[in-house]
Amino acid sequence: MHFNSTLKVLKTILLTFVLILFGFLFSNAQEIDNGVDSTLVAAPKAIPLAAIIQNIEKTNEDLNLVERKLEASKAVHKIDSLYPKFATYIDKQQEQTEKVLKSNPNRQKIENLYTKWNGHRIYLKGIEDDVNDFISRNTRLLETVDLHYKTWKLTLENAKNEEAPTEILNRITDLIQDIKTLEDNIIKENNTALKLESKINFKIELINEIMESILTLKNSEVYNLFHLRHKPLWAVSFTKKETNASNSLSDTISESVKESGSFIKTNKNSIYLYLTWVLFIAGIIYFLKRGFEKYKFEETDKNLQISKDVILKHPTASTVFLALLIAFIYFTGTPKLFENILVLGLLIASSYVVRPQIKTHFKNLYYVITFFYVLDSIKTYLWFHSGYYRIYLLIEAILIGVAVYLLFKKLLHTTDDTVNSFSNFLIKLAPSVYILVFVALSSNILGYTNLTDITLKICTHIGVITVIFYSLLLIIEGVSTSLIHRHFNAKAVIDYDKKLALEIKLMKIIRIIVLCLWFLFFLNMIEILRPLSDFLRDILSEPYKLGSITFTIGSIISFILILAASFLLTSLISFVIDDGDGVLKALRLPKGIPAAISLVIRYLIVAFGFVFALSALGMDLSKFNLLAGAMGIGIGFGLQTIISNFVSGLILVFERPILQGDTVEVDNLLGTVHKIGVRSSKIRTFDGAEVIVPNYNLMSNNLINWTLSDNIKRIDIHIGATYDADPNRVIEILAKTGAEHKFVLKTPPARALFLEFGDNSLNFVLQCWVHYEVSLVTKSEISVAVYNAFKEAGIEIPFPQRDIHIKSMPINNMLDQDKSNTD
């Protein structure tokens, strides 16, 4: 509740300041664009004669720096020299693709062709971006050099007018010539890069056309799932050779190996960065493992125990799995063989994570999944006569049916309560596989081979993606559980209920996210994701007009998602950078500094998130200038209290007169600071009430902080003894009782003092220093101990005595008063 109220106030304040700031920036930008203000553009000016020599040296240093930057651009020259070879390779691939498309390939080979050309496009787009960056940098360098050229031209004219020495004029002339030479070199480099960029762009357009033709063929009637593509199996002739297929067209393994090698060579720099990420992930995993070893994990929830075991018992497998998965995502446009190797590696790594969680009857599951994945992938690298290809599909379908039967025959009617959710899912999956196998057999026999291809792909790949995503789920759950476990156990006081609730809630969120990813991957596997995404993209990008405002559904969704992501990120920052107990604990910062760092980061995230959300919405921030000014006036008149509380909150955070957890007393209110917010702070009193105190009140009123520098407090116990008691004995008993209590500090020591001779007693005081948190309990226990010690020593604690004197009254008055009362 407090966080939500904070965000509401913060949204109002930040919106105003952001609009004013960006309105000012946009107005300046418009003035520059319109030529009204040119303060940001340096104008060439003649250098005074007395400063010419110093500026010649400075200009030479700038020119040397520009030359070094030009020398550092060897990669572009290397690209220019290697491009003809790659262009020739693309031309050969185009010819081969045209032959493949004419050879009536199956759906899988069509998809593989599209993937291959998409990889070529990604590679060329990366090169194009590098060349474009080179051109942009050279353009900036050219502007700098041109400024020097114009400046020294004016300086030369000025020096001639002032009749400077010939030596000075010659040095200026030589410098101008050097600048001109460097300028010509930059222009030459830019022209070369522009030509290369044009060539690359031409090839990218060619690749786009090839990919479009592949998609057109794939979406044609020939590749419709229910298109009768071949004759029934009994009518196929196995003796007649097909003329549209030849071994020269085959995507052989040797060619795939060459493509994979070429891919590795062209991505050397990316591989180095990737290895750095792998080392970082390995460090995180083993850091989390040490957290489980250092802090005892006491949760009894079965799923949480599994999450702990994944990190604690299988850190190497988890690291390898994440490394391979990142490689699968990081290296886009990979060759098919490279992709298959990564999938096999993921299966091997996931076996160490998943196998302990499945029933022992499924111990051969990984061998079955791997075998059929390899069996189905072989079709990528081999070309068959159509008849033999259908026999291959027939054998594959039969083997799948037999394997599933042998694997599940003992479990189809099991009533074992020990079967976990994943094993139960596999058991329920068996009937679906039988249906798919039956569809594959019947469609293949009848000639509907497109349907056969897709059903067999589902049968052979569904187990692969399920196991991989289940492994991903277990590892992410393990990481989240270990992070929460380490975070809470690092605190002095652990809220186990809050810890358990957060672990379970985060686990549910992770499962929903992984399930959505699995579903999207499944749609991509059955080749539905691309047309579905194109359909949704068309809907989301459709423009709508409301008055003078034009918007799209996609921009509105982007606006909402950016804001939601900003708020979620602020919550994460608040959780991670906790005061004294978060990730900054190792830095040993003073108390309150982590909270200030967290506050600044969260405010910046929310501010920039709001600006980016407005940009995603397509709103021109320069149109808010007038509105920002009006809101500024509104703040001056109507929001003074909010602004004063906001500024006071910032002062409290950075000056740190009070900190979260301090015991404070303000306006007769005594309690513990629970939260310091942007507008108000929350104080929890000792009777359980939570009081919202505006920050301005904390800054303007007298504030007592009992625990600012330390949490030590002195308690005074006043007691009296009769005049018959020995004061020395009383002081001895009091001092001993105070010193013996477990909560009383040894330094400064407890001391007993004689105060005064009272009306009815000798008055003493016992002063003890204790921690504030136990002050009330200590005072109570010491008071009881003093009473018992006095009773044991025979010392009496007197009570106040008063002598009452009744003044005598006349008898007649008393009789008259009694008579009136009787009447």
Automatic annotation (TrEMBL):
Residue ranges constituting the Mechanosensitive ion channel MscS domain according to the UniProt record: 641-707
Pfam families recorded: MS_channel_1st, MS_channel_2nd, MS_channel_3rd
One GO molecular-function entry: mechanosensitive monoatomic ion channel activity
UniProt keyword terms in alphabetical order: Cell membrane, Coiled coil, Membrane, Transmembrane, Transmembrane helix
Span of domain Mechanosensitive ion channel MscS C-terminal: 716-797
Regions annotated as coiled coil: 49-76, 172-199
Membrane topology qualifier: Multi-pass membrane protein
Membrane spanning stretches: 271-289, 310-331, 337-354, 366-384, 390-408, 429-448, 454-476, 509-529, 549-577, 597-618, 630-654
Localization in the cell: Cell membrane
Residues covered by the Mechanosensitive ion channel transmembrane helices 2/3 domain: 600-640
GO cellular component: plasma membrane
Family: Belongs to the MscS (TC 1.A.23) family.
Name recorded for this polypeptide: Mechanosensitive ion channel
Organism from which the protein derives: Aestuariibaculum sediminum
